[in-house]
Description:
With 199 residues, the chain is mainly alpha-helical.
Amino acid sequence: MRDLNAVCQIPRIGRLEIEDRVDEVLGECWNGSYPMNVEAICDYLGIAIVPVMELWTKFGVDAFMAADFRTIYADESEFRHCSNRYRFSIAHEIGHFVLHREYFSSRVESLNEWIGASVSNSCNYVEYQANFFAGCLLAPEDELVRVLNNEYGGSFARYYYMVGGEKYTRALTVVRQVFHVSEQVVKRRIRDTIYGIRS
Ligand SMILES: [Zn+2]
């Protein structure tokens, strides 16, 4: 049995770098429309999406990337309904492709090992990076700020202290509708965006 901790020792990738990597991908293959077409992005990157029956109910995962980083296996039910959850899962796996492919492909021998490594405690930040990437991909900051500014009369940054207020609740709904993401993702993206504006 190989030491998975050794497998997981990847460089830390900061938020700004992740945002840059998202911009690179979008700059190459995004047509400017919403919601973000994650399947078209996979096509562009040469990644196939293969639906798997009961992936979630039997194995407790929404999707996972094959060890060769060429195939994403996705829960068939989520795939069929193209749910927000499905789209986030695919965006998350694209994040692994963009951020972690070179590292993992040279160190991991099997799919099970990769899955084991990616969910081990020592590797939580790998998942954090992929989640942050997914949020940025589905709701890029410039576009998010544009939508929020629209809701906040052109100056969202001045209203950051109103998180939790009536405007905020309405903005959550609008952002969810524009980007087709869950409320959890919207809240996280708004929080990250506010942090970015303030810092
Ligand atoms: Zn992951």
